[in-house]
Amino acid sequence: MSENAQLLEAVRKEARPGIWSNGVSLARAGAVALQSRSASEIELRVKAAGRPVALTVVLYPGDEAWECDCPSRVDPCEHVVAAAISLEQAEKQDAPLEAVAERWSRVVYRFTRVEGGLQLHRVLAHADGTEEPLDDSLTGRIAKPVGGVTLQVEQVDLVMERLLERRTRGPLLAEKLDALLRALEPARNVLLDGRPVAVSSEVLAPRAKVEDRGQQWVLTITADPRITEVVSPGVALTAESLVRLGETSMTGAWLQHLPLVRTYSPEQLGELSAKVLPELARRMPVDVRSRRLPPLDRDLKPRVLLELNQLTQGLSVLPTLVYGAPPTVRIDNGRMVYLRGAVPLRDEAAEQRLIHQLREELNLVPGRRLTVDGPEMMRFADKLRKFRGDLGGDAAGIVSPDMRLRPSLRVEGGASGTGVPEVRFTLEFDVEGGKGGARTVDAAAVVRAWTEGLGLVPLDGGGWAPLPRAWLDKNGQRVADLLAARQSDGRVANHALPELTALCESLDQPPPPGLDRLAPMVEGFDKLPPPVLPAELNATLRAYQQQGVSWLSFLKGAGLGGILADDMGLGKTLQTICILGPRSLVVCPTSVLPNWVAELQRFRPSLKVCVYHGPGRKLDPSADVTLTTYALLRLDAPTLGAPTWEAVVLDEAQAIKNPESQVSRAAFGLKANLRLALSGTPLENRLDELWSLMHFTNPGLLGGRRQFEEKTAQPIADGKPGAAEGLRRRIRPFILRRLKRDVAPELPPRTDSVMHVQLDERERSVYDAVMAATRAEVVALLNEGGSVLKALEALLRLRQAACHSALVPGQHAKTSSKVQTLVEALETAVAEGHKALVFSQWTSLLDLIEPGLKGAGIGFERLDGTTTNRGDVTSRFQGPDGAPVLLMSLKAGGTGLNLTAADHVFLMDPWWNPAVEAQAADRAHRIGQERPVMVYRLVSQGTVEEKILGLQEKKRALFEAALSEASGAAAITREDLLQLFA
C-alpha cells in the first residue's frame, strides 16, 4: 500500500461519518487542486461552499498527518478528507492532480516600470492561459461569478481589494506603494515587467560606520550590497525580490552618491554623539568602532524629572525631559544636550507622549516653571502623587505627609410607630500624626475625595491628609450610600439599616438597638412570619408563593420597596394581588392589561377595579386598584403622580430600565408608601437597568447613577474581585427571586435545541456579498472608536440576510431555507397534535412566513404591534379549536402572556440578549403547562448567527453576576461586535 493510500486509510478511520460524506462530495465536485509538493509534504487548496478564500490543506503522507487552516474543531475536517481522497485517486489513476493554476482563475499583480516609479495592474489569469484586466470589484466577482469562472481567492486578495478601493493612474505614491508591498508579502502571483518576483518582508537600509583617524572621527555611509536597482522611491530590486527601503526618499540618484564620508573634529564631539549618531541609528545600522566615543544605549528611555520647591504660600514645579537615571542627556527646546555617560537612541514619539501626558495631567510644559497655591495646591499635589515621574527638590515629600485618618462612628436609635427603629448616625475621621492638635474630617469630604479619585483630603486647619484607601475601597461605597440615605433630620432611611449594621461590624461596634424587626433583611427570608392572606382570596398558594406574600407583606409593613424577580411563569401577579388594598396603582404593558383585569376578578373579586385607559379615562377615588399602562404613565404623569398611593406596582418593570426615559422619570415621581417592581429579567444588558429599578423601589439604596456606574458597575464589568458580591449584599434584602427548577419541580421539562439551517447557493451568495460589503467598513469603524450604533446597523443587515434574502434591500425571493425548515417542522408538529409559537423580531419576516403556512395548509393567528384585539387572539389560540400556530413579534408577544396551549416554540432570529428569548419561551413554559416544552432556535450555518449564540452565553453572565454567584458581566462591547464580524 502506497504512502498516499495509507494516509487516506488513516483519515478514513479518524473521520466522523458525516464529515467523511461531506469530504467525498467535495472531492467528486473537483474542489481540490495542487498548490505545491516536496519530498515530505503536499500542499493542496480546497474550495468550500460559502468561503471566498480557498482553504489550505497540508498532507504529510510519510507521517500519516495533516493540517487545515479552517476554523473547524473537528479533526479531520471535510477538507482534509477531500484532499486525501483526491490525492489517492490521482495516484491510483496515474494522473497527476491538477495544479491550482490549471484549474482555477487567480488574481495576478503586475508591476511595471514607468517614469517616476512603479505602476500596478490587477489581472485575472485563467486556467486556459488567457488573462483579462480586473478593473472592477473582486468582491462583486465573488458574489456573482461571470461566465462560469471559478476564482481562487487568497486572503491577500481581499486585503488588496480594500487597499485598491480608489484606483490610481501613473506611478504609485511612496506611502501607498509601501502599504501595498506589506500586503503582498505572502502573495505568490507578483510580476515585475512580466518576470515573477517575490515581495520580501525585509527592510533594507544603508549602513553607517564610525572609526578613529588620529584625534578625529570618520563617518562613512554605504549602500546595502544586495541592492541591484532602485525601481521606485522607497523600493529596490535584489536578485529575486522587491524589497522596501528604510528611507522612502531613497532613489537611485541618492544611492549613486554613496558612499558618503564626513570627518568630525574633537570640538564636534557633542554634535556627533548627541545628534548625528542617534539620528542615524533611528534609520540604519551604525557600527561604532571608536573607543573614544560615548557608547550608544538603545535601552535608555525618556522620562520626566519634576523639581519641586516649597514656597511660603505655595509650591514651585519645574519639569524637564531627560534620558537615563541619573540623566545622561536632557531635551531643551527639541535639542538633545549631552550631560554624561551613554548616549540614548532618541525616541521622539515617546517624548511627545510624555509631553502630552504632562500637559493633560498636570498642565505643565517641559522647561517652564509653574507655581500653585491655595486650594489648587491640594489638587495639584494629589495629581503629583499619581503622576509617574521622578520627584526631586526640597518639597519632594509634599505628596506623602505623615498623617493617617481613622474612622469614628456614633449611632443613636429610638422606637417609632411602625416598630422599625429610627436610627441616626454620625461618621467622622480622626486625624492621627502630623503637626497640630486633635482634628477631624467630615465623612462627606472624605467620600467626596474618594469618589473623585483623589488620594488626599483637605483638613479644616490647613494642609491635607492621605485617604485610608484600603478601608474606603472596602467600605467607601457603603458610607456613600448611607450618607445619601441620611435624611435632613439625620435619620437613616429604613432601606439603609442593613448597610449601617454592616458598617458597625466593620468597625467592631455594636449594631443600633431595635433591629429585631428587620432581622429578615439581615439574616434571611426564612425568618419571615407566615402570611395573613385575604379572607376572600380564591386561590390555593404554593409554599414558595406563600413565602413571597410574606416577603411582600413584610416590605409593606416596614415601609420598604422591593423587586419580585421570580422566574417567568411562577405567579408574580397572584402573589402581588394578595397584598393589594385600597389606593393601589398597577402599571403594566398594554398587552397584559386584560390579564390583570381577569386575574383580579378571578382571585379577589371583592376589590373594586378602575381601568385607567382609553378615551375619556379618569381616576376613580373609590377604587381599590387602579390599572393603567406605561404609555399613559408617561402621557398622564401629572394626573397619576398627584395622589399618594398606598402601593404602586410596576409589572414587567424592565420597561423603566432606561433611567433617562420619560416613562422612568414619571415612575420615579409617583408617591407611594410601598413600591414594587415585578420582572423576571430585572436586568438584560447593563447594570444601570438594575439601578433604575432599585431607584424606583428604594431611592438612594444604590447611590447616585454616576456613582453607581463608577464604583459598582464598572468594577463588575472589569472583573474586580468582590465587586459583584458587594452589589449582591446590598440588594439581597430587597429582591426575591426563585427559579422554576427550584420551586416548581412538577413543571414538565423544557428542552432547548438548535436547528441548523444550510443556506442554498443563492442565499449564500447574497449573505457573503453583504458581509464583504460591510466587514471592512465596520471593523475599521470600531477600531477607530466609531459609533457602535452604526456597527449594529450593519449587523442587522447581516442577520436579515441569514434569515431571508428578501429582507435585504434590492433582493427578491419567495421563500428561504430557514422558512422552509420552519414550515417542515410545523407540518410535523401539527400532524402530531402540537401547537406552536413562532417569534421574530421583524414583522417583515412574519409577513414572509405567512405564505409558506398558507401553502402548507397550516392555520395560524398573528399578534404584533398593530394587533388591537390581543385578548381575542390569545383566547382563540388557547382554545381547543384554535389555530395550531401563533405568529408573534418579540416586542408585542414576548412578555406577560399565558400561552400554555403551545408546547413548541420557534425563535427565528437569535440575538445577543438571551433574556428576550427567555421571556418568549416562557409564554409556554409556565405554571399550567402539562406537556414538555420544546424550544427551537433556527440558526443559519456559516453566518453571524452562530457567533451570536456564543455571545448569548456571555450576556447570561450579566444577570448571574448581580443576582447569583457569578463574578463578571458586561454589556455588548466593541470587542463583541469585532468578534461577530471576524
From TrEMBL:
Superkingdom as given in the UniProt entry: Bacteria
Zinc-finger found in the keyword field: yes
Record key words, sorted: ATP-binding, Helicase, Hydrolase, Metal-binding, Nucleotide-binding, Zinc, Zinc-finger
A Gene Ontology BP annotation from the UniProt entry: DNA repair
Gene3D superfamilies from the UniProt entry: P-loop containing nucleotide triphosphate hydrolases, Tandem AAA-ATPase domain
CDD domains: SF2_C_SNF
PROSITE patterns: HELICASE_ATP_BIND_1, HELICASE_CTER, ZF_SWIM
InterPro entries in alphabetical order: Helicase_ATP-bd (IPR014001), Helicase_C-like (IPR001650), P-loop_NTPase (IPR027417), SNF2-like_sf (IPR038718), SNF2/RAD54-like_C (IPR049730), SNF2_N (IPR000330), SNF2_RAD54_helicase_TF (IPR050628), Znf_SWIM (IPR007527)
Domain Helicase ATP-binding: 553-700
Residue ranges of every copy of the SWIM-type domain listed in the record: 55-88
Transmembrane segments: none
Chain ranges of the Helicase C-terminal domain: 818-978
Coiled-coil annotated spans: none
GO molecular function, one term: zinc ion binding
Name of the protein: Helicase
